[in-house]
Amino acid sequence: MDNCEGKSCSTCESRKKHSKDEILACKLARIQNKIIVMSGKGGVGKSSVAVYIALALSQKGYQVGLMDIDLHGPSIPKMLGLHGLLRVSQDQEILPHEYSPNLKVVSIESLLEDSDSAVIWRGPLKHGVIQQFISDCTWNDLDFLVVDCPPGTGDEPLSIARLIPDAKAVIVTTPQEVALADVRKSINFCKKVQLDIAGLVENMSGLYCPHCQQFIPIFSTGGGQKTSETMGIAFLGSLPFDPAVVAGGDQGKPVMEDPNASSPFIKAVVDMVNRLIERFPSAESVQAHSQSVH
What we know:
Binds and transfers iron-sulfur (Fe-S) clusters to target apoproteins. Can hydrolyze ATP. The chain is 40% helix and 21% strand. It has helices spanning 12-17, 20-29, 46-59, 76-80, 123-135, 155-163, 177-192, 223-231, 243-251, 264-277, 281-293; strands at 31-39, 64-68, 87-88, 94-95, 97-100, 103-107, 142-148, 168-173, 196-208, 215-216, 235-241. The strands form 2 sheets. Strands 1, 2, 5, 6, 7, 8, 9, 10 and 11 form a 9-stranded mixed beta sheet that branches.
């Protein structure tokens, strides 16, 4: 954009001068790395994985945006304990919720007067709303934008893949074959729309007994890694099932926010996010610079 330099497109005057596509490009230019969290089917804990990726990145010092585009079943605000409607700035831009100094959040639920309202929209309207979540929000400069997609390969994943062509997908599955069969469709979807895949995460990969700490493979285990090897994509790691994560999501208190918390799940999330960062060279350089400063 002429004379924009990536920073003036939020002003009313600038928005009048430029097209929607130009404003979108300007906003995306200020976001270094984009992650789209996807799953082949529902019930695999995709939104939880998106939340914990965003939390872990923000705790490492990155500036992170978390965008919930699961328009029919948004859950991000509840999982993070965010309440109230999003505000609008004097420049008529949506102001994301500030969960922490390093983490901003936008969800359709935070734009509805009644959170129980059913969103009944067709494809073109969905595309327009998703575009607004990027171009009409005050994200400012971000190291990462994490996008939580609804399950499957429908309108929303297709829209976000077209709007953010330089994004990389994180695909979430569970070890059961029925989930793995669907995740292979998601992998093929990414390849068909030329969306890079950062890797595969196997969620709910067994349970550590809270009494004896013995590992119990309640849904089997290892299927995600085998699928990633077969499909030729990176395997980012396995996250064990943890009842505390479920309780934290219901209460709006993620387990990683407890400074005294230590569990196999938290360790697995940190390891998984470290592998994910390796897939984004620019993020590694930011982290290295931050560590050298401190």
